[in-house]
Amino acid sequence: MGKGRPSLQVSLSVMCTAVGVIIAAAGDFSFDLVGYSLALTSVFFQTMYLVLVEKSGAEDGLSSVELMFYNGFLSLPFLLFLIIATGEFPDSLSLLFAKANSLAFSVILILSLVMGIVLNYTMFLCTIVNSALTTTIVGVLKGVGSTTFGFILLGGVKVHALNVTGLVINTAGGVWYSYAKYKQKKSKQRIISDEEARQK
């Protein structure tokens, strides 16, 4: 993307995050090959998606709102096909009509829509302003929080020392990445201000 090679600290922090994931997965005694395969496929496509968002925003100068519009417009035919192909469309319509008079349902539906819009907007904005990698690492940190709450609130998972160790290493990698990017940004600002001072 023309941003050059990442610094050593950024590279090591990303590796630390990946090692944390591998260690946490090694402690998963309910290992499911299909589940992990689908998760890896999801990670791959999410990465490609964010790289394309970054590329579109940087090269074409599209704003987050424009990217959201194109994303929705281009995704709609595929989503409609999936809804119809899986047979969910009639069930969804009947449920929508049955709950249409419920105030609680309407409020929850509207809040869900608004939260989805805000989530996508902030994700696109983060990707355009920072990078696809930064957005991914922020997502990893969010995922650690979700996983921890899932362990505590939902239960049903046998927590192993490897799970906890992996989550801690994963989180440390995410925090390290954030710190490395912060230092990188500060040093760039210092270089720019030094150059401006020399020119005066």
UniProtKB/TrEMBL annotation:
Q: What is its main location?
A: membrane
Q: Where in the cell does this protein reside?
A: Membrane
Q: Which GO terms describe its cellular component?
A: membrane
Task: Check the UniProt entry and state the signal peptide residues, or none.
Answer: none
Q: Which domain of life is it from?
A: Eukaryota
Record key words, sorted: Membrane, Transmembrane, Transmembrane helix
Provide the transmembrane region boundaries.
7-27, 33-53, 65-84, 104-125, 132-154, 160-180
Give the membrane topology.
Multi-pass membrane protein
| Keyword match RNA-binding | no
Q: Which PANTHER family match?
A: SOLUTE CARRIER FAMILY 35
Q: What is this protein called?
A: Sugar phosphate transporter domain-containing protein
Protein species of origin: Acorus calamus (Sweet flag)
